[in-house]
Amino acid sequence: MKHFFSLIALTVLLSFSPSGDIYSVAVKALDGNSLDLNQYKGKKVLFVVLSLSAEDTTVRASQLAELQDKYRSTLVIVGVPSIEAGFKTADADKLKGLYKDAHILISEGMNVNKGAQQSALFQWLTHKEQNRHFDQDVRGVGSKFFVDESGELYAVMGANLTPAHPLMEKILTKPQRKNP
């Protein structure tokens, strides 16, 4: 009987495990094409909520470009325009122009804040039951989510940590976790 209850408890526990990894989340690029995250397995991926204006200094394209150039062999940066921050599909060309020299991937506009309209990507990034590590809402433009080479969310930072901040180096040079 004791083993029976243990088996039931294990079954219940496993039924609440995360439904998928970051690589199974469907993401579209700004141009409407599919952005297959599977191709970035083995690299760190930084998801950053983009500024929609050159006047907004929260996330500068030049800082993202420097970061991408410095870590080009180990890092992929995916910029996400936030619908809550005012992104509209009509702004796509303006956004492409703003980040053209940053050498980053740009997704389609997404609802990034928790709620009924939140995109699947940000549901995974902001809900602990999906990413297994963090339960933290987006803190506005400049919010950053760091995924390691094995698809684990390992750091979440707000806008106050700019791409040029010295802590970024520490986060991005975190040694790859050994598989158990």
UniProtKB/TrEMBL annotation:
Entry keyword set: Oxidoreductase, Peroxidase
Listed GO biological process terms: response to oxidative stress
The UniProt record lists the keyword Heme: no
PROSITE patterns hit by this protein: GLUTATHIONE_PEROXID_3
Family matches, as Pfam families: GSHPx
Superkingdom: Bacteria
InterPro entries: Glutathione_peroxidase, Thioredoxin-like_sf
GO MF annotation, one: peroxidase activity
The family this protein is said to belong to: Belongs to the glutathione peroxidase family.
Annotated protein name in UniProt: Thioredoxin domain-containing protein
UniProt source species: Niastella yeongjuensis
